[in-house]
Amino acid sequence: METNPLITQILKIDYRSYDDYRFSCFFKWCSLYSELGVPLQALTTSKALYSWYCQQWLGLVEKAFKNDCKPYLDAKIQDAIVYLDFLSTYPEAIEGFYPSVLINKIKNDLKPLKKECKHTP
């Protein structure tokens, strides 16, 4: 996942910490959508779903965050905690979206597993 180095610089964290933060937001998103009848583990381990989420992150979180922070950066405000608090409001934008095609594929991929797990007397 390609992230603009400016974001990690203003947050004063390394890429790995930023990636962990993004994944924690993905986990929260998956928790919300696990109510559609898909196990949380199946959602969080789907590479295709995480890739979709990361693409949404680039547009709805990173791009918006960089645009909105520009006046603060131009004013030379260097408070990483303020920026992190500011960033934490952006992932909510993704919560209104879900890729129904990917969710349905994950559900369909689980159907054979459910049949195999049934106990017979």
UniProtKB/TrEMBL annotation:
This is Uncharacterized protein. It comes from the Bacteria.
